[in-house]
């Protein structure tokens, strides 16, 4: 089924809570999803990089999708990440997630082989023909080694069921080119917390943001300021949360986010190899940086 409305707003890329035996902790997913929806999340994206996709087993991924679908209860779209380097595994996983109740799929550009732009277009066309789902194009070149040209993004809007793009390219000129080439045919969503207000001012209609696990109301207010033509207010609020962004990405994601959720919300903080848990030094910094902002989150919700 197609999405009922275009993707926009603050979509949260959530971590995967696992216990000491590697089992997905269903209750933690429910608690997190309920808190995020109450904070204004317009979608939930499990199994992305924040969800440790490449470290999870097939059964763990499936359990996480099922738990997220159940927790959301059709209140907001569930958009699992699909982060395989090859087509066959990606198709198999995507079909499984859609059968489990996902609403769309966030498909990363194929990596390792570093294909040509024509190869990327062919990959997404083949995927779209094989999986009955609308797609969020996920470009993150500093992870994949693959950068998309604005022309390629435009072609993908024509040949595949790409309805949105999570844009994690830090080149603002490139992002502006993407906006001009395809912003009228797909929802451009920023994935870069450091420059998110600028992406929004350029035309991004929201974001897929990991730090919104902790600060969903702040991010929604930043987006609202931009939509209302209040860019200075958006930049000022962004400057206020920038220390939190810095500490939550000071060590490999999602270890710091899991540590913060564990400290403030009793969320399991176990991470999967090759990641290590957040360092003790970072854990000591989290309350100092986050407590004032979380108090502000609560006031925003009153």
Descriptive report:
By secondary structure, this protein is an alpha/beta fold. The chain has one domain: Alpha-Beta Barrel (TIM Barrel), CATH 3.20.20. Helix content is 49%, strand content 11%. It has an eight-stranded parallel sheet with strand order 2-1-8-7-6-5-4-3. Helix 4 links the parallel strand 4 and strand 5. Helix 1 packs across helix 2, helix 3 runs parallel beside helix 4 and helix 10 runs antiparallel to helix 12. The radius of gyration is 18 Å and the shape is globular. It starts with 8 loop residues before the first strand and ends with a helix. The mean pLDDT is 96.
Question: Quick summary of this structure?
Answer:
This protein has one domain (9-230): Alpha-Beta Barrel (TIM Barrel), CATH 3.20.20. It is built from twelve helices and eight strands.
């Amino acid at each position: 089924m197609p999405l009922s409305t275009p993707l926009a707003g603050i979509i949260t890329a959530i971590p995967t809570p696992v216990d000491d035996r590697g089992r997905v902790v269903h209750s933690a997913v429910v608690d997190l999803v309920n808190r995020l929806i109450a904070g204004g999340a317009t979608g939930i994206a499990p199994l992305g990089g924040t969800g440790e996709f490449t470290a999870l087993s097939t059964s763990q991924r499936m359990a996480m999708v099922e738990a997220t679908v159940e927790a959301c209860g059709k209140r907001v779209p569930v958009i699992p990440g699909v982060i395989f380097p090859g087509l066959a595994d990606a198709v198999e996983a995507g079909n499984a997630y859609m059968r489990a109740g996902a609403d769309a799929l966030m498909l990363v550009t194929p990596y390792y082989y570093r294909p040509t732009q024509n190869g990327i277009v062919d990959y997404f066309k083949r995927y779209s023909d094989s999986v009955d789902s609308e797609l969020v194009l996920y470009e993150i070149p500093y992870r994949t080694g693959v950068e998309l040209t604005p022309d390629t993004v435009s072609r993908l809007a024509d040949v595949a069921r790409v309805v949105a793009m999570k844009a994690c390219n830090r080149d603002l000129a490139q992002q502006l080119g993407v906006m001009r080439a395809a912003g009228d045919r797909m929802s451009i969503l920023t994935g870069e917390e450091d420059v998110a207000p600028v992406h929004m001012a350029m035309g991004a209609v929201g974001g897929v943001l990991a730090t919104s696990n902790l600060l969903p109301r702040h991010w929604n207010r930043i987006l609202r300021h931009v939509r209302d033509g209040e860019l200075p207010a958006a930049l000022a609020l962004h400057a206020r949360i920038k220390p939190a962004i810095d500490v939550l990405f000071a060590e490999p994601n999602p270890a710091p986010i899991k540590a913060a959720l564990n400290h403030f919300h009793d969320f399991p903080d176990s991470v999967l190899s090759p990641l290590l848990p957040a360092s003790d030094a970072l854990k000591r910094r989290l309350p100092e940086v986050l407590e004032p902002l979380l108090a502000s989150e609560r006031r925003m919700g009153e």
